[in-house]
Amino acid sequence: MAEELFKEFREHSVSEFFRKNAAMLGYTGKIRSLTTIVHEGVTNAIDAAEEAGVLPKVNVIIKRVNEEPEHFKIVIEDNAAGIPKEYIPNVFGKMLAGTKLHRYMQSRGQQGIGISGSVMYGQITSGKPTTVVTSTGNGEIVRADVMIDVDRNEGKILNEEKFKGKWQGTRVEIDAKDVSYMRSRYGPFNYLRMTAIANPHTHITFVEPDGTLTVFERGTDKVPERPKPMPLHPWGIMSDDLLVLAKHTKGRTVASFLSAELSRVSKRKAEEVCRLAGISPNKKPSELTWEEAERIVSAFKQVKLYAPPTSGLRPIGAVDIENGMRKILNPEFTYSITRPPKVYRGGLPFIVEVGIAYGGNAGKVAEGKGEGEEGENEVGMELVRFANRAPLIFDQGGCAITAAIRSIEWRRYGVDPATAPITLFVNVVSAYVPYTSAGKQSIADEPEVLNEIRAAVMEAARELRRFLYRRIRLKERQERAGIFEQYLPIIAKKAAVLAGVKEPDIKLLLKKVTGVEHAKEGEN
Amino acid sequence: MPKREKTRIKPEREHRQIASAKLTEMGREVVKDIQEVRPPKLRIPSRSTSNIIYDEANRYFVLGPRYGVRSAASIKQVKKFAQFLCTADFAKKLIESGKFATLREMYYTAEGWDAGPFSDQGESDMIIEDLEATFGLKRENLGLTPEEDGAAVFGKLMVNEDGVVIDATKAGRAGYTIPPTIDDVEFLKCKAKRVIAIETMGMYHRFVQEQAWKKFDALIVGLKGQAARATRRFLKRAHDELGLPIYLFTDGDPFGFHIAMVVISGSAKLAYINHELAVPDAQFLGVTASDIVDYKLPTDKLRELDVARLKQLMKDPRYNTEFWQSEIKKMLELGKKAEQQAFSKYGLSYVVKEYLPAKLGLKS
């Protein structure tokens, strides 16, 4: 039964599927679509470099090919391991709905369907294939145009070329119409800026349609540890996940399948769950029906289970967040914190990280070159959201992070969110990030998650307040010292005249009176 | 009336020497503090209402024990401290050169001071008060004078002003004008036996015309309303130095009462130097509420302001005597007030011929 379901699924026209789901996957609106294309390419590039064990270097170029109608060319280049020729069609051409396999680990928010979606979008809007240039470093560079065969849901290579050259990496060129470029909150520039902050180990260069080159420099030379792949925990699993696992499992019975593939499930526990679900533990996994899968999922909620391990989580780390913010925003003050792991819904572990930057380029959404869709050129508190290091760009209003920030009384920390030059960086790390929708652009307001975000942000806000107060006090102290320097000499002079004696030296007294101030200044 | 005991008042030159010495001493202490790396401090008596106390025994307002400390180490006070010293320096120079400056003149001079100009006259006046209170000196002794002249004096008094001898019977009908620097004036000779201080100049001229100074052997003093500092000083010197009893004759209303009371018991505002200005033995003759009744004087109705003021006076410690309490009560019940010139009802000379002698207990 499950197999039939999948067959049916595969038989739907892929372009049909894409068109229906594009909006959910980020291809909504001209600016956002362009950003999503950039996002897919950059995400791939960074992931690939990390897997290859090198510090990612990503070049992004957006060229305007034509004005009327708008036609852009998006180029994304990386320094990773390159793609062997035979994998090119799969990587770029297969529209896998089942990339949920990546759920096994804390992934860089595998939003939507990956680069193949971008290829599809480019193909649909411009009619042109995507050009891929890649080399695994073996001296041979491959250049191929890839198109998606809509009927067969396959990638097809046209115009393949090979030539000699010393290079390693991948370069993707996508032509797209129905996109627009703007330096606004949802545009590619801001996306790259946020990505650079969250990934201080990356070096990103960006050339805009008008030729402006921006370099987002590396903040650290440390390659972050890859998160460990771990089996899914029953609390985070859904029916179709179960069926996919069932299809590929080596276990011969449902009971052994459950205990082998799922985290924290012993054979005995699996049998208990089967009994609760009214299923024979010895049933063949491939014969599981959708309805039975649903029963198993709800049965798991009724039994006692150990919470999933927290060791697999890989936050960015406070130091790296600060490095990232400093490099990109050049602020007067930064503070960041990685909180200890917490759980929500009884046992799903997550970590919240917060970074706060004040002054410098913080708080400016975009150095506006013109009015954006959302009325840009604002200076005020800017919220930059991340889930597992991937920026959450869209759906800001419905996100728990946004709700948490709004619920804080900023005035108590000496901050007016409307005008303060602050960039607030929040990263939620989990193998089970509670997204509000399949678009994975905003986080659902699970109470434990919301409270933890609030607590972390308030901690950062307290540090900011201390900095602000110290600044005011320093200014005051400097003024005060000036006052003594102005009036003590007068006192000395006049007193001497009254007394009819020589004017005394005030140096020591001046030092004593302002000395307290000078000493404290040294603290800063 | 028996002659009063004359109190020896220090001649002005001594006053100046004392003032100069005090300022010098202060300068020395500040210099010493600086040399010993100690923030210089000043103790300045507090002139807030909570520190103004009515001295029952002496019968005038004095300052209580409270004081404020002004320190050169305080960010808020160091500027005032410097201004204080600049003012002291200015005063000492005045004393040494024998010159006088008005408060207004000093305020303008301060524009050129190191410690900067004062933001307004009030600020500079405050510093002068600080100086007076701290050292127990009158500003006149520091070379600083108010702008107004004092009262007019007519009578058998001869004074010496910087070598010029003035006879107060020969200074014209307007009399001898008390200068702001009255402390500099030497009393040479006095043949008068008493002083009659009069509120209005109208009544003063009446007295002069009627030759009341001869009739009563008195110095007739026209106060011109509320008595100026110099006038109060004059009256005190006349009482203390010349042993003359002081009598006060004002309108029969709360403001007249107050004019008299300030001469007698001083003002709260000058509590810190009342001891140099108040004449507690001075006597108020009238016009009293009883006089209004007894003499059936033409009256005016008491206005709301008058009633409020009278009620205030009833609570004032200076008026806490049987005489005053009953008089104020009577006036409130009467609901009427009367001017001193109302006596003209009975003829122009009545006040000199009948009223005053009766009040003074003299034969008319």
Write the layout of secondary structure elements.
The complex is a heterodimer of chains A (524) and B (364).
Chain A: H1 2-11, H2 14-21, H3 30-52, E1 57-66, E2 71-78, H4 88-93, H5 115-126, E3 130-136, E4 140-149, E5 154-164, E6 168-177, H6 188-198, E7 203-207, E8 213-216, H7 239-248, H8 254-261, H9 267-277, H10 290-302, H11 318-329, E9 333-338, E10 342-344, E11 348-358, E12 382-387, E13 390-392, H12 400-406, E14 422-429, H13 447-499, H14 507-521
Parallel strand pairs in A: 1-7, 12-14
Antiparallel strand pairs in A: 1-2, 2-6, 3-4, 3-6, 4-5, 7-8, 9-11, 10-11, 11-14, 12-13
Helix pairs in contact in A: 3-5, 3-6, 6-11, 7-10, 8-9, 9-10, 12-13, 13-14
Chain B: H1 12-35, E1 41-45, E2 52-55, E3 60-63, E4 67-71, H2 78-97, E5 101-102, H3 103-109, H4 121-135, E6 144-145, E7 152-154, E8 157-161, E9 164-167, E10 176-177, E11 186-190, E12 194-198, H5 201-209, H6 212-215, E13 218-222, H7 229-240, E14 246-249, H8 254-265, H9 274-277, E15 283-286, H10 289-294, E16 300-301, H11 304-315, H12 322-334, E17 336-337, H13 350-360
Parallel strand pairs in B: 5-6, 12-13, 12-14, 14-15
Antiparallel strand pairs in B: 1-4, 2-3, 7-10, 7-13, 8-9, 8-11, 16-17
Helix pairs in contact in B: 1-2, 2-4, 11-12
What proportion of the residues of chain B form beta strands (DSSP E)?
Answer: 15-25%
Secondary structure class of chain B reads alpha/beta
The helix content of chain A is 25-40%
The CATH level-2 architecture of the largest domain in chain A is identified as 2-Layer Sandwich
Rg measurement of chain A, Å? 29 Å
CATH superfamily of the largest domain in chain A: Histidine kinase-like ATPase, C-terminal domain
Q: What is the makeup of the main sheet of chain A?
A: 8 strands, mixed
Question: CATH first level of the largest domain in chain A: which class?
Answer: Alpha Beta
Shape of chain A: globular
Strand content of chain A: 15-25%
Give the CA-based shape of chain B: globular
- Give a count of the beta strands of chain B, DSSP E runs of length 2 or more: 17
Q: Which regions of chain B are unreliable across 5 or more consecutive residues at pLDDT < 50?
A: none
> Which CATH C-level class of the largest domain in chain B is it?
Alpha Beta
Computed structural class of chain A: alpha+beta
How many helix segments of chain B? 13
- Largest beta sheet: strand ordering of chain B: 10-7-13-12-14-15
Strand order of the largest sheet of chain A: 5-4-3-6-2-1-7-8
Low-confidence stretches of chain A: 97-106, 366-376, 517-524
